[in-house]
Specification:
The chain has 90 residues and is mainly α. Helix content is 79%, strand content 0%.
């Protein structure tokens, strides 16, 4: 059986990787003409990171469903608002 810390360590590494990808996109996406696509990818990575933090670092994976739904719903609402603001025609 795996030690419980293996999961949290794997999640930590995934969060680090997502952060590195986000930083790279922030620095290089404009120069390579990725623009809106890069912004959407950064937002998707941020949403995935938020889910991992809510479920595992805040330990809501085994919490009552109401708390999980509230926090994940809040995250989804924020991501949706930012996505709409990003894609809204100017």
């Amino acid at each position: 059986m795996k030690h419980p810390h293996h999961r949290i360590n794997a999640i930590w590494i995934a969060l680090l990787a997502a952060t590195a990808i986000t930083a790279w996109l922030g620095e290089h996406a404009g120069a390579q003409g990725l623009g809106t696509g890069a912004a959407v990818l950064v937002l998707a990575l941020a949403a995935a990171k938020g889910c991992l933090i809510i479920l595992d670092y805040m330990e809501l994976r085994r919490a009552p469903a109401l708390w999980r739904r509230l926090l994940l719903g809040w995250l989804a609402a924020v991501v949706l608002l930012v996505l709409v603001a990003t894609l809204w025609p100017r």
